[in-house]
Hints:
The structure holds 2 protein chains of 2 kinds. By secondary structure, chain A is mainly α. Helix content of chain A is 85%, strand content 0%. Chain A has one domain (2-221). Chain B is mostly helical.
Amino acid sequence: MLKVFWSVLHRDLLLAMRRRTDVLxxxxxxxxxxxxxxxxxxxxxxxxxxxxxGVVWVAALLAxxxxxxxxxxxxxxxxxxxxxxxxxxxLVLLVLAKITAHWLLTGLPLVLMAxxxxxxxxxxxxxxxxxxxxxxxxxxxxxxxGAIGAALTLGLRGGGILLSLLILPLYIPVLVYGAGxxxxxxxxxxxxxxxLMLLAAFLLSSLILAPLASAAALRISIE
Amino acid sequence: MSSAWSKFxxxxxxxxxxxxxxxxxxxxxxxxxxxxxxxGFFETPDQLGGSNAxxxxxxxxxxxxxxxxxxxxxxxxxxxWAAIGLxxxxxxxxxxxxxxxxxxxxxxxxxxxxxxxxxxxxWGTYWDWDPRLTSELILFFLYIGYIAxxxxxxxxRRADRAAALLAIVGLVMVPVIFWSINCPDPNQCAALxxxxxLGKVDGDILFAMLMTTLGFWMxxxxxxxxxxxxxxxxxxxxxxxxxETIQAEVRS
Lengths: 223, 252
């Protein structure tokens, strides 16, 4: 079973490496959105420190969501997805492998880019550390929940806009606690513990439930 | 399932039954709304509270509270029908879920709209990021998402099942979303918890509020049944009974 997981993961990563621009576009989208805000609201340090956590998280939400469209779309178009559904391997595992690949390509780079963005917003070092931890826990949740929406909107006209309408409201808890943790980190570092615990709880519960829902959604979309 | 239930699970037998029930619900809706509004306008005190009294504008609650209750309850009912549809694979359940969604969205909008008009004189602002307001707004988005997904899919079977799954995912997420808005800082959740109870409400006001809510319920029944009848005819247009029904309706 683990072998199936690895082979799907390996295949998706390999495909992404062959089309590197797709991955890089998402990351640059994130950077551009984050860089635009100071130009719009002014570059005073105090303002940026207040806005920083929220802006970074909203940009992460959007970047992760934009990349979701590609999660199943290419495989759907060339028929691979249909073959995956026909195999006798558990679909939940295959979906989880694809979601993991999606997170490694869009979520993890955001975590690694966080210090860079934090410096743009004059965040303190502890705040940047908490931001990386929160992103590390939160971005997989975004990929997991988003996969349900991606599976439901598979092959629809205007799927991207529709996907944002379906998925963004469900991202709210991650946004609230993710941004909340970073905001608080500047004031009192120890108080951020419950925030990170909650994000971890979201991660664990969505890790169990979201692949099941995504697999069910895929079966509905392709039958 | 008992035979009576499965009998009316068929669109062709439910269609005439719904047609007979609609006028009843319209009468009940009009009756309870009239009683509720009369009581609300003429039998309730003109002022609420002591030093910081709310004047006549507080009467918006007779519409507002009912609409807010209905918006939440209808979402649960919608998910209930969607789940029944996924489990038993009954077409009519999906049609019911579809028919409820617009009414639910309208009540959500009405709750937000009336709340804004009440908020202006009492809070001095149309909108505030109060937990309840925000939750209601999110609920509105969930309704819109359901309707949008359903109308984006051309194949009726896929549309029904996909929207049903989305509604269920939404219901699972609703407590988490509401709680995260209600308690943005987990370090002091207990302090933020809001308290309100029906026991503290004046008897006349409570009566008027419950009557308008009952009226909204009956209105929701009537509109849902009307909409489900249209959906049934649209979906079943290729069958003989539906074609005959449509012809009979056109003639009369």
